[in-house]
Each structure stands twice: as structure tokens, then as C-alpha cells.
Amino acid sequence: MTQYNYDLFVIGAGSGGVRAARMAKRHGAGKVAVAEEYRVGGTCVIRGCVPKKLLVYASEFSKQFKLAESFGWDVGESTFSWENLIEAKDAEIDRLSGIYWRNLSNSGVEVIADRAVFEDAHTIRLVNTGKTVTADKILIAVGGAPFVPDIEGAELGITSNEAFHLETLPEHVVIAGGGYIACEFAQIFQGMGSNVCQVYRGDTVLRGFDDDVRSQVHSELVRSGVRVITHTVFEKIEDIGGGKKRVHLTNGTQLDADVVMYAIGRNPYVEGLGLEKAGVELAENGAIQVDAYSQTSVDNIYAVGDVTNRVNLTPVAIREGAAFAATVFGGKPTAYDHSDIASAVFTQPPVGSVGLSEADARKEFKNIDIYKTSFRPMKLSLTNIESRMMMKLVVDGDTQRVLGVHIVGPDAPEMIQLAGIAVKAGLTKDQYDAACAVHPTSAEELVTMNEKWTPPELKAAE
């Protein structure tokens, strides 16, 4: 019987890899190691969800100060220090990364601070030391990396990775992209006092979300002061001196900025990993191809998280990692169900979404009922702020099962977690209606909407 150095070797110490390693030990795996080339914690903890939400919180205060005045508060003059915020953010990320490291070590997992690449299906080379190790099972959990366009002057721009480490708050920012990262950072910088322009190739931001969500977020971006330019992309970027860059768009527009940021997607981080030496096959989109149990084309090699490009969310990577450990080391084959996963976009106001959009539901089901409402949140009732809240239920007209819930407004991410349970459980509109409302809340609208929405074109036909 072949003797390996490790029973399990995990490449990447993000949320998915860390959970898989710890759960594998809990299931009785022998020697387990995790190799990480940067910092333990992965994209979410180090340069993604967590620091981003800290910046979102910081950027919201400028609006909250104005809101407070409508409720009788005299907040006086306020100032903002980007430097103090980044210092506090870095301290918190250091603390969280340390917790991840300690949890791995306390679980009996060896943590290796090095880049790991394949030499063959069972052999890993540690790049910095040149050492090679062998493993019976190998899990790839390296995540993704921001996409940078192939244009003239591309090196003059930054990605979300670098945005967390800017030395000063930029006066003018131009952001490429219309996805959740682009929209969130547009309002982060705007809320802190930057002038922001967002450039998107489509007609409405947040492609893939329900159309009503997209329209609402687009309107709120503009309302917040973000200049949104659609139907165009970056053509080139030039350095015009004094720390300024000039962005040339394909529609002929020129934009000057201190910071130019790309938020146009992320790619699986597979470059230089040596997958060809191990025989691991990639899908057409560059992601590692896996089956329902996260197994690659090579029997002993598995992959979880964003590198597989299934559902690129941190909690999904965690669940995939746990399912892998249960399957391979727990004797309980487990395939994670990727349907009806709740998600949030931390725009201002934020988005909560779970289940099918109206457009997708109409493609899949014969009869669809739509319930939706739009109103000013009570918190804005004493102000002249025109921001509105939108809630929408997508319902199977034959079975009355609620197929999707979509919310744009204050606390939408908190609400969608609970709504996600109901959608996952397959509850019906009648069961929603049977729940007593909590008053006065915005969430009560989820159980009080009782009038079906009819598209204008159908109303006209009637």
C-alpha cells in the first residue's frame, strides 16, 4: 500500500478549504495540511465580504447624519478619516485571520504558508521552499481572482483587492462594471465623499437579478449621486500626470480620475497551479470541472468554492467543503443542493434575493402570479428623501408555491435569510398569508401582499 505524507492536502485556506480541513479531521482523517500563499481566511475575510461590509458601514454614516437632523438631532460638523478607517479595518482583518489560523491548528491541521502547485496527481510542490510532499486526497480551494481587461493602459487601474489598501480617499473614481462589487464600491466611495462614475456595458446594473431589483438599484445609484454611464466600456486608460488617469470609453467619452477600478467579474484562480500535470480537466469557462460531489476528472482530487464557478458565495464554499469532508472521510456521500440560495447585495439601500426571478420563473412554469409593492420606508417619513423600498413575491400560479422573494430596501439582507428558509421549504402563498404581520415593520409586507400584479401590457389587453 502506497504511503503518502498526508491523508488530505488542501490548497487554499479560504472559507471552503478551512471548513473542509477541519471537518475532515473531525471525521477521523489522519494527517491533514492546508497550504496558503497569502493569508489564512481567503477572499471573503481578507479582501472581500468582511472588509467590504466594514467600508459599507462607514460610508452610510454621511447619510445617517443627515437623516438624524430630521428626527431632531443636531449632529454638528463631521469629518471623515480614510486613514483611520483603513487602520481599524486592517486590525479587524488581522484578528479574524488569526482566528482562522488558530482554529485550524487547534483542529490538528498543519498550516503551511506557501504556494502549492501540482507535480502529479498525488504530488505537491511548495514553491517558496521547493519541497515536495505527497497526499492521498487533494482538495483545491483556491477561489477566484479579479478580471483585468486587455486594454491599453490596463496597468493603471486597480481591482477590489487594491481598493482596500488605498493610502488616501480618492477625489474622483471611475469604476468599470455593473455587478454587485461595482455597485457596492460605487456607493462606498460616494458615501465617503468621492465623485464616482460607474461605466457598464449593459442597460441596467446587476445582470442576473430580477428585473425589478435591477431597476430599483439602478435608480438608487443615480439618486445617491453616482453617475452611471451605460452601453459602453473602457477603450484605453492613459496617465495624464499628477496622479490622474484619463479613461477613454468606446462611445467617445473621456473621464478623468484619481482611481480607476475594475469590477467586471472574477475568474477561477487556476493559472500556474499545474493542473495539467495532475490531469485535472477544466470547463469551457476556465473553472475546474467537478461532479455533484465536488470530484474532479481525477479520482483523488476534489475542488470546492469559486474555483468551480458553481455558485460563487462564501457560505456555499463552506457547505461544499463540509459536504466533501462528509463524502470522502465521513462515509456519508453528500451532494450540496445549490438551488434556492439566498444572497445579498450591500448597495444603499441593500438587496436581498432568493429563488427564481420573474423572468426565469416564466420560462420554467406555465402560470406565474406576481405580488409586489413599493413604498417609502417609515424611517424616511420625516425626511424629504425619496428613496423607496421594493418587495416582490414570485409564485407558481398552479401550486401557489413561492418560487422567489426579492427585496430592495433597509435590512433586506437580514429579511432574506428568513425568507430563504421559507422558499427552501417550499411554502405556499397561503402559508405566507397565514402568518400574522409584525407591525410596524417593512417585513410585514411579505405576509400582507394580497393583490396580484398585472403587467401593463396585459392590463391594456383586458
Write up what this structure looks like.
The protein has 462 residues and is α/β, with parallel strands linked by helices. The protein has 3 domains: 203 residues, FAD/NAD(P)-binding domain (3-Layer(bba) Sandwich), CATH 3.50.50.60; 111 residues, 3-Layer(bba) Sandwich (FAD/NAD(P)-binding domain), CATH 3.50.50.60; 114 residues, 2-Layer Sandwich (Enolase-like, domain 1), CATH 3.30.390.30. The protein contains 13 helices and 21 strands. The strands form 5 sheets. Strands 1, 2, 3, 4, 5, 6 and 16 form a 7-stranded mixed β-sheet that branches. It has a 5-stranded antiparallel β-sheet with strand order 17-18-21-20-19, with helices on both faces. A 4-stranded parallel β-sheet has the order 10-9-8-14, covered by helices on one side. Helix 1 packs parallel to helix 9, helix 3 crosses helix 4 and helix 3 packs across helix 6. The longest helix has 25 residues. The model has no long low-confidence stretch (mean pLDDT 96).
Could you name the key traits of this structure?
462 residues; 21 strands; FAD/NAD(P)-binding domain; Enolase-like, domain 1
In short:
With 462 residues, the chain is α/β, with parallel strands linked by helices.
Number of distinct beta strands: 21
From the alpha carbons, calculate the radius of gyration and give it in angstroms. Answer: 24 Å
Number of helices: 13
User: What characteristic shape results from the CA principal axes?
Assistant: globular
- CATH domain class of the largest domain: Alpha Beta
| CATH topology term of the largest domain | FAD/NAD(P)-binding domain
* Low-pLDDT sequence parts: none
Q: CA-to-CA gap between the ends?
A: 75 Å
- Percentage beta strand: 15-25%
Q: What CATH architecture label of the largest domain applies?
A: 3-Layer(bba) Sandwich
